[in-house]
User: Fold these one by one.
Assistant:
Number 1:
Amino acid sequence: LQLHHGGRYRCGGWVSSGWSPWVKSEPVTVTVHGVPLSGVSLSAQPPGGQVALGDRLVLSCAVAAGSGPLSFSWHRGGAAAPLGTGPRLELRHLGDNDSGHYQCRVSDGDSAAESPTLNVTVL
């Protein structure tokens, strides 16, 4: 079932096998509700968010429940400007200034949810 399946429906048919007029039911309205966003999680490769200077870090964002389409954005230190979009963020050649608290934000157009923060440390 998709959100666009909502609308007014009716059925119709013949009442008997002989000649009879086409009979239609009264219409019913079907409303399809979206599933609220929940269970936004963040994972890192390498695990734990500790990365050697010059290495790369891949962050992944997952949603346990929610009806789409979903949009993703990545943020560091609570900054409003996103570092990237999509469910995956790859940071290459990490430097000292890349350490910090990273978070994924997910929106379904009506509501938004955030992952817990991950403390990334460049060693």
Number 2:
Amino acid sequence: FQYLKRFDQRCDLDAFWYEAHSVEGSPAECLQLFLLHCGIGDPSWAELRNFTWFLNVQLRDCEASVFCNPDFVRDTLRGF
């Protein structure tokens, strides 16, 4: 949710890192963003769960990758 929220606000996601147990927004705002970005017109709860699970795994892997660390790559891969 935090990444999608910042993406919609056109924030620099390269400088953002998720902080465990931090809470932002309301449950309604979270659901609205998931519905907007999941790519399915009328998703089931299972489809929303799969979308959020996959997105979470990808973002966690991205944060763990040295190639996505702005301190390591500097500006060579900006926006990648």
Number 3:
Amino acid sequence: MAAMAALERWVSGQLQELLGLSGRHVPAFLVALARRSRSLEELLERLRETETLRVEEPRVREFARQLWDKVPREAPREPPGRAAERAALELQRHNRGYRLVESDEEEGPGPAPAGHAQEE
């Protein structure tokens, strides 16, 4: 959580430079906005929708890029059903590599394979 507090302080400082002010909850809001965004472009669009920053300005775009880079993201999690499906498909692929092995006992009557003597 210390990292998030440091990130919010950084955002607050950047807002001071960009806008000349920073509200108490605005940095946390912007960090959350960046975390929910799947790409820098999506973050810029969300910022545009808030109508608080002019994303056309190069300084604002640079701020958004830096924020995007700084926000920690979790690795995408695979849903449990998807993991089970993937494991089943892998097992199925693995099993296709096996072939039935015929033993001498299953061959039944007929000529014995070369090198084997028939018992009488």
Number 4:
Amino acid sequence: DLYRKVFVFRKDPSDAFVVLRAPLEQPLHNFTVCLRSYTDLTRPHSLFSYATKAQDNEILLFKPRPEEYRFYVGGKFVTFRVPEGRRDWEHVCASWESATGVAEFWLNGKPWPRKGLQRGYTVGATAAILLGQEQDSFGGGFDLYNSFSGELTDVYLWDTGLSPDKMRAAFLSLRLPPALLAWNSLSYEVKGDVLVKPRLRE
């Protein structure tokens, strides 16, 4: 149980990452991914990377610069421009539904204007899911200058789009529906210089 704990990625740049294991039985037609990050990086970095053998950027949350997030589904992406952070924790949730291709992005409990992405696409189920690196091949192919350095916590993946109430609940760390990946029951393996430490403050 990682309650009130964080992954600390200590080095910059880094070859370290964390492998997450999710019980994926069928392809995803809808999903929501949420996580909380804390970093002073200004260079590009990957937050959440879900690759299949057919597509290395099947799901990717990527931050190319401090005032921009990119959300990839099936190798295509939409950009969400954000105020440059105050060097504080940032909570992001991104959700997508195949039927409409609508991509939602929430930052610190607030929704950004919705965008269209990969309508009718299906996300593959046999996946390598990593924190801290961006995959250019299945489970590997890292560019160290896209690596994450800092702290990550509250990582979740659902096979549904969350309602606005649940998006806000994720930001506030309230009770959430059962998830494929849930921070309080995470199946993970640390590869390299990543520590599990208590959160410094709430």
